[in-house]
Write a structure and sequence with these properties.
The protein has 199 residues and is an alpha/beta fold. 27% of the residues lie in helices and 24% in strands.
Length: 199
């Protein structure tokens, strides 16, 4: 995985020189640099843009895909392509933080040779640097309420993903949650009829 400043295609050339003369060169390597967020799927039921307690922002009833729209359909003849890891972030995270956590998780999996699909599930946690101040005392509880209310759209998404990412043994969808994201994840598992949608 190469990281660059801008998206684009090109060729990477490796060669050795001695005294101004090329003594060995490798075949060019084609590079296609894309935004890392287009290399995985992002599903969202909403974000809280301003800091503090934004009481008007509540989870949507359906998760909408916002990145990874051009990824290819998994090839069932390659077993590893049927794996899916869905990440659910935690409390007190800005939209930028959510992207950063998901980007990092995806890159680490990629570097370790993971060949399956990765997804991030975003829910509208409140966020603030001043969440301990008296007038923000409901910050945690209000986020927790949004976590509970984000569980049904996550359960629906898990059901949908498990129809595609599966083999003869069942679902290949794995759920990975951080901090308060475990409220979203555990409640969604409770809402699923059998739990068979998740490996």
């Amino acid at each position: 995985l190469f990281e660059g400043q801008v998206e684009g295609e090109g060729e990477l050339l490796f060669y050795f020189e001695k005294n101004g003369q090329t003594i060995y060169s490798f075949d060019p390597i084609h590079l296609d640099l894309v935004d890392v967020e287009e290399m995985y799927e992002t599903w969202t039921v909403g974000d809280v843009t301003p800091g503090g307690i934004a009481t008007s922002v509540l989870p949507a009833s359906v998760a909408i895909q916002s990145t990874g729209l051009n990824l290819s359909t998994p090839d069932p003849t390659f077993s590893k392509e049927l794996d899916y890891i869905l990440f659910v972030h935690g409390w007190n995270m800005t939209p930028f933080d959510k992207d950063w956590f998901a980007d990092t998780a995806f890159k680490r999996l990629w570097h370790q040779g993971y060949k399956g699909r990765f997804g991030a599930f975003r829910w509208p946690t409140l966020h603030s640097f001043n969440f301990l101040l008296p007038w923000q005392s409901d910050h945690f509880d209000a986020s927790e309420e949004r976590a509970w209310n984000s569980a049904q759209p996550l359960a629906d998404l898990l059901s949908s993903l498990s129809l595609v990412y599966r083999d003869v043994f069942g679902s290949r969808v794995k759920l990975y949650a951080h901090s308060m994201g475990n409220i979203v994840a555990s409640e969604s598992l409770r809402l699923l009829s059998s739990g068979a949608e998740v490996d």
